[in-house]
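From the shared-data thread, chain only:
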Amino acid sequence: MKGYQRIADMTYAYNADIGLSYSSPARGVWNIVHIGTLVPESHQIFVCPTSCLRGVVLTTAEMGAMDQMSTITVGEDNILEGDMEEALYNGVVKILSRLEKRPRMVMVFTSCIHHFLAVNYQRVYKILRREYPDIDFIDCYMDPIMRRTSPPDPTLRRQITRVLRPLEKEANSVNIIGNEFRTEENSDLYMHLVNNGIQVRDITRCRTYDEYLQMGASAANITFHKAAAKAGKDLEVRLGQTWLPVRTTYDYDVLDADMKRVCEAVGIDAPSEEMVRKEREMTDAMAADVCALLHGMPLSVDYTAVDEPLYFTLWLKRHGFTVESCFIENFTEDKAVFEALQNELPDLKIYSSLNWNMRTVERGHDGIITAIGQKAAYFNDTNHFVDVVESGDMYGYRGIRRMLALIQEAYLEEKDMRRLVQVKGWGCHCG
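Structure, as tokens:
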């Protein structure tokens, strides 16, 4: 397979966002439809031209969640007649009149055309809120033209928390904000919190809208991913909830520092030095065992599988694994990590899965390779792969050991790559 650069020949300023891009059949990464359906008793309304609606409708249908979504088509007549605001209002009213069950929250997704025409959609929402006081109307956006300044994904993770209202704070409760997957036994932080009497609220656990609104009573919000930063910061400003960002990383020192910081914020003891030492030893021992099992089989790392693909690659290299390639669109991790890889793994192949020329690249790999992530599996054309996106539910030493177990499983057992990567929304429980 060609189309790569050696990391030794690259600069830290690398950014593959060069305009025209290629979208591979690897479809496991969540989009705004999946995220929106996490809110219980909610309904999504997409207001877009027909071509834009096609994707969101197919996603919702594939999830089996068509009862949670409606559409309003924007046509040339709306543009020529200048009635975009009226069409938005009348469409929402008509949809609400036809729903079998009245939603508690309505997410209205406007599109690029509304920005181009400077539509005053906030005026429409103001009227709707007055006429339907029992429904929370949230302005949401499906506008890929804003992907550099206000990408739809992190913006939506913030918008769905805008309904949370100030409540009397509960000192022994925290929220996990911005996660798509339920965090439990594969997370050191979650297990330590619940084992020390801290209630952890999470949208993935909420079954009713009232239960979701109760997240406004938590004293702090924990975010694991950069895409959740907007939500964490906004809630800190609006509701006075302490924002505790942690990194889903393989850097042991960062994991320990984040754990101590969260424990201090919620008033519990952090794990003892002895406990941390044992966790590190267990993790390193398991890494050695899995590395020995693979016996030099090359690995390929995918940025859609882990938050810090460069550091993960470096961690694997330092634990004896053979890492051949990394799929990544830009370098956002510490420059020191990039420079360490240049020194320790200079022949590491860096691919951009979005580059337009990946459409014609000859997929495949000489010999057997184990991929970590769907895009790495697709472009290497391998059935030996870890099928996960956005770190799944993994965090901390438990999370690292879980990833090692998945790598071992991927080496020993083949998967049906072509079938699995085409399922839109990995692990989606919404439908």
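The chain has 17 helices and 14 strands.
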